[in-house]
Amino acid sequence: EEWQEKGAAVGVRQDIDANGRPVLKHVKKGVKDFQFGRTLGEGSYSTVIAATDRQNGKEYAIKVLDKRHIIKEKKVKYVNIEKDTLNRLTDHPGVVRLYYTFQDEQSLYFVLDLASSGELLGVLKQTTTFDEECTRFYGAEILDTIDYMHARGVIHRDLKPENVLLDDQMHVKITDFGTAKILEVPHKPPIQNSDAGPEAGSPLDGADINKANSFVGTAEYVSPELLTDKQACKASDLWAFGCIIYQLLAGRPPFKAGNEYLTFQKIVALEYQFPKGFPEVAKDLVQRLLVLDPAMRLSIEHIKNHQFFDGITWGRGLWRQKAPKLK
Ligand SMILES: Nc1ncnc2c1ncn2[C@@H]1O[C@H](COP(=O)(O)OP(=O)(O)OP(=O)(O)O)[C@@H](O)[C@H]1O
Ligand SMILES: O=C(O)C[C@H](Cc1nc2cc(Cl)cc(Cl)c2[nH]1)c1ccc(Cl)cc1
């Protein structure tokens, strides 16, 4: 048993039980299985470090969280939401993959895909703006990933260029799921008897019971419905998507003011302008996403068919092609 304590290599081990029968055992990875390297970045409750698996030389990003700090800052819920969400989103190239979690005396560890080209925001700052081809490519990979998340009942709720990472081939890896909302499978209430009144037996549609509340994302990308009735829904991610498309082409987000309150005022008033020279087709797309009523926003299918994405091959082909040169 002692090799389990030492955090021996993951995988299955041949063992013999009391009756001499072969037993296969799963053992967890531990800190000792990795050679830690450079620090990739710091979060409010975390440090992300590049690490190599001693067994197979594979490189990962390991997100390390201090247990005492997590508990003191009351972030336990967020850590477990991040783990549960990432465990539901395991087979899409656009989501940062979670391979293992483990803990020791002081820390919690998430072993993640290494996105070695950093944040989309950083890359955007280098070129100030993207041209239409780059915006189309990165917009398409982000949208394809949102489609996958929503199909699995996950609303990200904090989509922004800082949370869109890039791998060594400059393909998208979306991260930061600690504030995501997992939509419970809709539960139809049992049929009420007729005198129970309308509200008791009202047919709950997916939207009603799948609303999320309490968390508010990053000011510039927050949807109006989150500000007016504290409810996020899948369409809230598409509002953020519209802000990202605008920002890639304009070099700044559509709603930005001196402080958060003034930014929120602009959002609920839909107060934004397109800079001169903003491409007309992209403008039409953004205008159909930055719509105050979430029900009136373009659906993912309609976005995919929008003229702005003409020429994009959706599905696996999108992820096999070379990323365009940034200019
Ligand atoms: N899988 C990854 N590969 C490469 N770099 C990463 C990866 N995950 C996070 N990073 C980088 O590490 C830094 C910290 O990320 P982390 O998710 O821990 O905190 P954060 O979300 O940026 O901050 P906060 O928790 O305050 O929102 C960020 O700059 C991020 O770009
Ligand atoms: O072993 C698991 O997979 C489940 C645990 C659950 C868990 N144990 C915790 C202990 C502490 Cl002190 C804080 C949090 Cl948020 C904790 N979450 C866990 C361990 C590591 C990570 Cl990264 C997340 C959750």
Keyword list:
327 residues; alpha+beta; five-stranded antiparallel β-sheet; two-stranded antiparallel sheet; 13 helices; 11 strands; 18% strand; globular; binds adenosine-5'-triphosphate
Would you list the SSEs in sequence order as H and E?
Answer: HEEEEEHHEEHHEEEEHHHHHHHH
Largest sheet: 5 strands, antiparallel
- The number of E-state strands comes to 11
Taking the alpha carbons of the first and last residues, their distance comes to 56 Å
Q: Could you please describe the fold and organization of this structure?
A:
This protein is α+β, with helices and mostly antiparallel strands and 327 residues long. It is built from 13 helices and eleven strands. The protein has helices at 2-5, 67-72, 76-88, 120-127, 132-151, 198-201, 206-209, 224-229, 234-250, 260-268, 280-289, 300-304, 316-320, and strands at residues 11-16, 22-27, 34-42, 46-53, 59-66, 98-103, 107-112, 154-155, 164-166, 172-174, 181-182. Strands 3-4-5-7-6 form a five-stranded antiparallel β-sheet. A two-stranded antiparallel sheet has the order 1-2. Strands 8-11 form a two-stranded antiparallel sheet. A hairpin with a 3-residue loop joins strand 6 (98-103) and strand 7 (107-112). Helix 5 (132-151) runs antiparallel to helix 9. The longest helix has 20 residues, at 132-151. The structure holds adenosine-5'-triphosphate and the ligand O=C(O)C[C@H](Cc1nc2cc(Cl)cc(Cl)c2[nH]1)c1ccc(Cl)cc1. Adenosine-5'-triphosphate is lined by residues 40-46, 48, 61, 63, 96, 112-115, 119, 165, 175-176.
